[in-house]
Structure formats: C-alpha cells, structure tokens
Design goal:
Elements: E1 5-6, H1 9-17, E2 25-33, H2 46-56, E3 65-69, E4 76-80, H3 86-89, E5 90-94, H4 101-112, E6 123-131, E7 135-143, H5 149-159, H6 182-209, H7 211-233, E8 249-257, H8 258-268, H9 272-290, H10 295-298, E9 304-310, E10 324-330, H11 338-353, H12 359-370, H13 373-385, E11 391-397, E12 404-405, E13 408-416, E14 425-432, E15 435-443, H14 450-477, H15 480-484
Helix pairs in contact: 1-13, 6-7, 7-12, 8-14, 9-11, 9-14, 12-13
Length: about 475
C-alpha cells in the first residue's frame, strides 16, 4: 500500500521560499577528538562511522524520504526514496596541511553555499579529516522544511550518545514503502478539498458552543497578525549589512565559557538569551561604527532582530517539522553602556514574549491548511523582502553533558542558520557541555570582514563581563565612598 505524508504549512514555506541565492538549510560544524576513531593508516575510520550511521537511520525515517509533488495543486509530500544510497549523503573529505580552523571555516562556508538536491532526501553529512590537534569534524546540512533548530539537535541526538560506544548492531534491513501514483494522489487531493467545508463547519460549531473562548482566541490571533504585519509595512533600518545577498557564504565562530555567562546573570539578571543578544547588539554597534556609521546615528535606527522561538509542546518532542514562531524585537543599537544595553534588550524581549506575535504562528498554519500554503509562502517572501528584520538571532539549547560519536567525544558545536534574502549575516548559538558556541553565517561579498564582527562580539562580551565583575567586587568589598563616610 502506498504511503505518504503532507508537509505542514510552515515546512512548505521554507521549501517554497528557497532560491538559488537564499539556501534554506540549517547546518552545523561539530568538532570531535579523532584519537579514539583513528584507523591503521592515519585519519579517522570512515567505514566504521558509515556503518554506525547506517545502523541509526531507522530512528530517522525522514532521512530516507524525498519530496514529491501532488498533481494539479502541486502540494509537496514526503515519500520513501526507493533509490536511497547512504554513500551519496555521507561524504568523506580531508583538509590539506596544516588543517587549521581557518581552513575548516572556509570548507564549511563552501558546503553551506551549495543547494541540496531536491530529487533526493534533503540532508548531507561531511566527515572532515586532517584537522590539527588530532581532531575531525562533521559538517551537517538539513533542509529547513524537514526540521528547525530544536528538531535538528534532536536529530543529532539519534547519531550521538552520552556514553562512548564501541560495539553496535548492524543496520536493520530497510524496505521502502511503495510510492503513490498520480491518480492516487489526485483522488486524495480532491477528497481533502471536498472535506474542507466540513472541517470549517466543525470549527464554527465549536465556536458557537464556546463563544467567549472563540472570541478571545480570535482577538489574540488578529492582534498577533497585526503585529507581524506591522513589521512588513514598516521595514527595519537600511544598514551596510542588509543588501541583496549572493549565493556564496563565509562562516566563522566563537566559543564563550558558560561560567562567564553565569557571572553576568548573577550580577544583572536576565536570561542567557538576553545576555547573548545584548552582546550581539554591542558587537553590531562596534562593527558598523568601523564601517563608518557613528553611534549617534545608530541610536536613531530601527534595528531589529528576528528571534525564532520554540513553541513545541511536550507531546511534540521528537516530532519532525517546524514548530517555531518568529519574534521580532528592536534592539538598542548604538547604546554605549553595556549594562543599559542588557536592560533594554531584556525589556524588549519580555515585551515581545508577552505580545501576541507568537500566536500568529498557529493562525498561519490554520490559514494555510484551510486555503493554500502557497499563499502563505508568498506572504512570507514579501515579509523578508520588505526587510522586517536586520538579522536572525537564534539560540538552541543543547545537552549539558558531553556527547560521543562512537568513542569520539564531541568537543565543540557551532550551528549555522540560513541567510534571509537581505540579511548579510545571521547568528546562531548552541549551548553544549559548559560552553556557548556561536556560528556566524554571512554573505561572501557583503562581509569580507566577517572576522571583525566575531572579534567585536568577544569585545562586547568582555565589556559586559568586566562590568559584572566590577559590580561583584563592589558588593564584596562595599562602596569605598560609603566606607570613607
């Protein structure tokens, strides 16, 4: 019997919005200790890694499925790929000596610059050998229509483990399910469209039974759509990092110790995300000032961050697809005081979380199911082309304990978020085993000086950390002026 699954409305938006320049895959660069997996001739034992990943694929059915289109209406569905070949998706490459971080970042940028093949399952993993200091890397790519950042971490968890693993069972036999033929898909599409009036009727009947609940929900949804639409009607500031992007990418990274973040939290409060976003805001201020935009002019700009927020419920843990809402907040660009900057970011994030923006996510999905998801993709495309935000800032919580690929411990995890059409740079963070790992994905032409932004990020964080330590010192020893009095 033929089996298939429809893409959700949000998943389809990510599929339909992709262009030759705006590649909509999430990615990551993960560094491992190579010594436990070194083969007899040097380098990691790629065949063993391949056998291990093959043995785990039954836990990730979507990794052996591809996109197919329904006739006439063109809706995308997931079907099993009868020609699935792991060797196409899992690739082995090696850096030339010295195999340093700069070379790895360049390689990651090139891998991220390449579109995934729509005729095959939408993922790749590159095993990168030849790194200095006895390390190797996994560079992963997963199309955003398949999962979001939180889901991507859960997928990675199927391939990694908390404890080192030496022996494992071989891959179970996989038999692809039959693909539907065109007539079967057309009949299903007709039945689905004919059933929509009944679904709408059930919704109206439920609203009549609970009128107050329906009214409150509709009012909140309408307010959320209004707030989301306002960012499209009134574009964010035009800055040197918001031109039209090309297809080539630069990638860079930064690691920050979580103990230092705790010092700031203890001194000034706020969440990890507040501290990181305040740091990024300070970094952009420094970076743009070096680009010729003075701080006094920056303070007049409506500079916005698009912050994806996880809206998964407990019952949805482990489910594939996208369950995120986009929270757009204005950040205090040009604010010179790091403590004041953090406070303003915290206020902006709190206001955003208590707004109706997050409710727009569910409304968009319902509208897409009851009309046509292609309309939502057109609206989303207009939203980004009108520059509703200046950059994406996403923070994905990872495991607190160390993970392993077989016996090899994971040392660092740098995420990659895709660029929107007029975002010269977007930033993704992942917390992991006592560190906060920043991944900077940028347009090759707009940010040839991307590393300057990375350095500015460290400078902005150190400025805030210094203020926190000064505050702690004053609390410990008392105010010298008060002591003298």
């Amino acid at each position: 019997m033929a089996t298939w699954e429809r893409l959700g409305a949000t998943d389809r938006i990510f599929l339909d919005m992709e262009t030759l320049d705006a590649h909509l895959h999430v990615a990551g660069c993960f560094l491992f200790d190579a010594r436990p997996l070194q083969g007899p001739h040097g380098g990691v034992d790629f065949e063993r890694i391949q056998a291990w990943i093959a043995s785990r694929l039954h836990r990730i059915p979507r990794y052996r499925q591809r996109i197919q289109r329904i006739p006439i209406e063109g809706d995308p569905i997931w079907v099993d790929d009868p020609g699935f070949n792991l060797q196409y998706h899992l690739r082995h490459t090696r850096l030339p000596p010295p195999g340093d971080d700069r070379q790895l970042k360049r390689l990651c940028g090139r891998v991220v610059s390449q579109l995934l093949d729509r005729g095959k399952p939408l993922w790749e993993i590159w095993v990168v050998d030849g790194l200095e200091d006895d390390r190797f890397a996994l560079v992963t790519k997963i199309h955003h229509c398949l999962t979001d950042g939180i889901g991507g971490v859960e997928l990675l968890g199927h391939l990694l483990s908390i404890d080192p693993i030496k022996d494992f069972e071989p891959a179970p036999v996989w038999i692809p399910r039959p693909n539907p033929d065109r007539a079967e898909l057309a009949r299903d599409a007709i039945r689905r469209r004919l059933g929509l009036p009944f679904e709408i009727g059930r919704g109206l009947a439920n609203a009549l039974r609970h009128p107050q609940r329906a009214w409150d929900g509709a009012a909140e949804t309408w307010q959320g759509l209004r707030e989301a639409g306002a960012h499209t009607v009134h574009p964010a500031a035009d800055t040197p990092i918001n031109g039209r992007i090309g297809s080539h990418r630069r990638f860079d990274w930064l690691a920050i110790d979580f103990d230092e973040i705790r010092e700031i939290k203890h001194a000034f409060g706020g969440t990890v995300n507040d501290i990181a976003l305040a740091t990024a805001t300070g970094a952009f201020g420094r970076f743009l000032e070096r680009r010729g935009l003075p701080a006094r002019e920056q303070r007049q700009l409506d500079f916005r961050a698009a912050c994806p927020v996880n809206v998964r419920e407990d019952a949805e843990r482990g489910a594939l697809g996208n369950r995120v809402a986009n929270l757009i907040v204005r950040v205090p660009l040009g604010e010179s005081d790091p403590v004041a900057r953090l406070e303003k970011v915290r206020e902006a994030m709190d206001a955003g979380k208590h707004s109706s923006q997050l409710s727009a996510m569910g409304a968009i999905e319902r509208i897409g199911e009851l009309t046509h998801p292609g309309l939502l993709a057109a609206f989303a495309r207009l939203n980004v082309e009108r520059r509703s935000s200046n950059f994406v800032f996403t923070n994905v919580p990872g495991p607190r304990t160390r993970w392993h690929l077989l016996e090899a411990p994971l040392l660092a995890a740098y995420p990659v978020v895709p660029l929107l059409p007029n975002h010269g740079v977007d930033i993704a963070l992942m917390s992991y085993a006592g560190g906060l790992y920043w991944g900077f994905n940028s347009d090759w032409e707009q940010l040839p000086d991307l590393h300057d932004l990375v350095l500015a990020t460290r400078e902005a964080f150190d400025e805030l950390l210094g203020a926190a330590r000064a505050c702690a010192s004053e609390s410990e020893h008392g105010d010298p002026a008060e002591a003298k009095a």
